[in-house]
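@channel sequence for tomorrow's demo:
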Amino acid sequence: MAPRTPTSTADSARAAALEVLEAVRTRDASANLLLPRVLRDRGLSGRDAAFTTELCYGTLRGLGTYDAIIAACVDRELDAVDPVVLDALRIGAHQLLAMDVPPHAAVSTTVDLVRSVSNEGASRFANAILRRVGQGDLPAWIDRIAPNPQDDPEGFLTVSRSHPRWIVSALWDSLQAHRGAERAHKDIGDLLDADNARPGVTLVTRPGLAQVGELTELGALAGRYSPYAAYLAGGDPGALAPVREGRAGVQDEGSQLVATALATAPLEGRDEWWLDMCAGPGGKAALLAGLALERGASLLANEIAPHRAELVRRALRGYGDRLVGAEVATGAGAGIDAELGLDAGIEAELVDGEGDGGGVEVMSPGTGTLQVIAADGIRAPWQPGSFDRVMLDAPCTGLGALRRRPESRWRRGPEDLERLTRVQRRLLSSALDSVRPGGLVAYVTCSPHLEETRDVVRQVVKARRDVERVDARPLLPGVPDLGGGPDVQLWPHLHGTDAMYLALLRRS
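structure tokens (generated this afternoon):
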């Protein structure tokens, strides 16, 4: 069924938020990709755009908590409530419990919103439910509906922090593995709170094209850890000339740190050809490109999906004629269907390894050249042992970026892990085959889940006799709380970054 368009009786900001939530629910849309278009189509800017953005992201982050509260206020199962009416109730609950919206305004505008997409009976239903929701504040509701934290700590956090129980459990296990049981017990609430906080905008300068000082002169603040990072307090990043011209971009500082770690790790012998094996959408590739070119090295950026490979090419556009080839080179492997069918915003293009890289022409590295291809990284079109440094940012659950993509927590399930980890192991084995003896592979995920991180690395290393672990911690100078090594796990609540994982491996 096509999404229902709110009529003129609903104000534009709330109607836009409902449109996004319904698309997220019915079409697996990514809020971060859809919302800018909806704002533009509805002519929303300034305060109205900011209000709509908070309605969308805040409601998606708090959806688990709000559903539990709404369920306590209705006389039926939530599955029996008209889904679009339930979306509107969630928007109303967010205004009542987490925003500075007067209660009467939150109720009346949501009732109007329901009336615009449904009927008078549904609007009366919404009015009654929201009045019940408004009878308590959020802490009072948590006390009423959440399990006792002493008896069921994971259940309490599931309701109070709006995360599925399996994610709470996985994050707690990872904290314990990296930081010990006592610290994990203290940190888990802070980590989940960080997932629910609105993230700032972090910019990255492209080496050789821009410097951080250029961004700070435009009002940004220099980053804490990455020498290429700057924080933008507000406004549209695309309005800044360095971003508009491709000399800078938007990239989480954690992503910058893991790319820089690979580039700065000591390497004996040749250092001429680098590979970004799963390069889409291009942020790490653009940073690696600049670092490689500074040394006269070349970079091959590979991405299985042609449309994402084109995004990589656009990210590299600032390097001009260093980018060889008139268009993205594609081969048979790029046509493989995604094994998991995850959305494009969360490392979507997964391979089953049944194709090959035939048809892709991998150019020999010149002195400081860049090439983008679309091929299957498992059945690679390049020769084994070709590269000196390999970045493998593997497809993953994306649990490390829940603050940026809040809807992803409601789409993933533990059943995804078996297929994902199979792909991750095969990609890591291919990455190790692709690097020369003495060369380095960075295994990276935007997930702290142990099955996707330490378990994958342990299993692949155990199956080979030509791999040694490298302590990655010294390659992130100035970054505190990096644990016992040799791998690195970053955390939103400690480092202000996405929860990026890095294992550095040397082929012996």
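heads up for whoever presents: The chain has a mean pLDDT of 92.
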